[in-house]
Automatic annotation (TrEMBL):
Protein family according to the UniProt entry: Belongs to the LysR transcriptional regulatory family.
HTH lysR-type domain: residues covered: 7-64
Keywords: DNA-binding, Transcription, Transcription regulation
GO molecular function, one term: DNA binding
Source superkingdom: Bacteria
Organism: Affinibrenneria salicis
Pfam families documented for this protein: HTH_1 (PF00126), LysR_substrate (PF03466)
Protein name: LysR family transcriptional regulator
Amino acid sequence: MNNLRRFDLNLLVVLEALLIERHLTRAAQRLSMSQPAVSHALKRLRQQLEDELFVRSAGGLQPTRKALALADPLYEVLDGVRTLTGRRTTFNPAAETRLFRIALSDYGVSLILPGVLQKMRRLAPDCRLLCLPAAHGAIPSQLSNGDIDLALCVNPAPNPSLRSAPLFTERWLCMADARAGKADRLTDWLNRPHLLISADGEDQSSLDALLARQGKRRHIAAVVPHYTAATRLLAGTDLILTLPARLAHNPAASLIAFAPPLPLEEFDYGLIWHARSDGDEGHRWLRDLFSER
């Protein structure tokens, strides 16, 4: 594409909708266009940008590498045009049919999602949430690639292209079967077998890294992927589970909770999103929905 005058700039709005929705029908609904019209626009985009841009996948459309590379400058340009013309896109939740893709662990599902879904069903009944597992190390690339719109995670690492907002600060507690007893002393705690929660299957955590720096090590007897099921595994065993305090409820009367016998830093749990979504009114509405407590 060598001549800008030959390029229909209206196609950029279609490209934006396709990048956000990853689905032909939903992009058409977002633009108040027919699906054939969006298909025709995509065909023209492919010709003018000399790239396939999107390939069909099981869930809709998967952007190519070039489409992903165009996303950030495209959002920035269109956001600037909307500011310049006073035509920033408004978001009417009651009339929207948008799909939001969220990455979060079962910790976030248990604590935050119930309230969010209640408000979403009341305020935006035709919008949908697609909740995906949160693999902490993969979140930055998922956000950059547009695979997810928003993530809920622990202590997001600084990144110039990402934004974050804390939701709350959490502390740690330990749980065990009452018959096995507490482990108030560090030596007793280290000698007991431990149950580790790991969504990605790793058998080491930040707690184990802390112990290693002190020349100590605990025995990990079992690794499971979900917090919410873990407490049920303690009954009738000598296992100790160290988990966020908000999840230290007691599903069985035989379980007890106690403070860890070593100082553990509290952690921030919050939202993280890509900077290109700052000006997206629908995204801002979603962030506000999660932030309301």
